[in-house]
Design brief:
Layout (H helix, E strand, L loop, with lengths): L30 E5 L4 H12 L4 E5 L9 H4 L7 E3 L5 E3 L1 H11 L10 H14 L1 H10 L4 H21 L11 H19 L12 H11 L2 H6 L3 H12 L11
Parallel strand pairs: 1-2
Antiparallel strand pairs: 1-3, 3-4
Helix pairs in contact: 1-3, 1-7, 4-7, 5-6, 7-10
Family: Belongs to the GST superfamily. Omega family.
GO biological process, one term: glutathione metabolic process
GO molecular function: glutathione dehydrogenase (ascorbate) activity; glutathione transferase activity
């Protein structure tokens, strides 16, 4: 998972990892996930794969200098993307999450009730405004942008209160929990990067804070979890114009 990110000039080798030093075949029964270690959208795919214990390999992509061969997997050049044994590729995080949940029946993440499943998807759509406003905030957005983020968080605080459960999915995390978690993981990093502009009132989000602490104890979350300090280091490297994708490479 913490392998070096591949950029232009790396070689794509059919049936094996596209690296020059470690040519590991794609084993029978395994998927391949194309990811970027700090991408919240890619983390969605990681969480579903790990929650359902789906065998997979990971290839990290340097998004600022994408390998030429990667556009054959995903013509948009974004992560995540998954490659199946047959060579078929899927991309876009929500599409991948839905595919994995339907294809691999172990530990279903979405409700079997069509109405509840639809309501959860509505919540995911509501949440989609938060990442956009976070991006805007870090690129000069004013107080109105931050207020919009807090207002959207209010919706999720109220939703947890209405559901009366530990997680949005009930007693254990479900699809909605995993689809929104990556941004909550980064909230404490935003406080480090912009302490004067990102102050979330804790008393306003008691339920969400309890949920956040419970999510940190989930086995799937633990696998991909990155500390706020490391997230902040990566965010600051982006701001310098030289994103350090390989902070975690040993």
């Amino acid at each position: 998972m913490n392998e070096k990110h591949l950029g232009k000039g790396s070689h794509a080798i059919t049936g094996s990892f596209p690296t020059g030093s470690t040519n590991v075949p794609l084993l029978k029964g395994k998927l391949r996930l194309y990811s970027m270690r700090f991408c919240p959208y890619a983390q969605r795919a990681h969480l579903v794969l790990d929650a359902k214990k789906i065998p997979h390999d990971v290839v990290n992509i340097k998004l600022s200098d994408k390998p030429e061969w990667y556009f054959e997997r995903n013509p948009l050049g974004k992560v995540p993307a998954i490659e199946t044994e047959s060579g078929a590729c899927l991309y876009e995080s929500l599409i991948i999450a839905d595919y994995l949940d339907e294809k691999y029946p172990q530990r279903p993440l979405q409700s079997k009730d069509p109405m509840q499943k639809a309501k959860d998807r509505i919540q995911v759509e509501h949440f989609s405004k938060i990442p956009a406003n976070l991006f805007k905030l870090f690129h000069g957005g004013g107080d109105d942008t931050f207020d919009a983020i807090l207002t959207d968080l209010d919706l999720f605080e109220k939703e947890l209160a209405v559901r009366g459960t530990r997680f949005f999915g009930g007693d254990v995390p479900g699809m909605l929990d995993y689809m929104i978690w990556p941004w909550f993981e980064r909230i404490d990093a935003f406080k480090i990067v912009a302490p004067d502009r990102f102050v979330v009132p804790t008393d306003r989000y008691k339920k969400l804070n309890e949920w956040k602490e419970a999510m940190k104890e989930d086995d799937a979350v633990k696998i991909t979890y990155i500390t706020p300090e490391i997230h902040a280091e990566f965010i600051n490297s982006i701001k310098t114009g030289n994103a350090n994708y390989d902070i975690l490479v040993k």
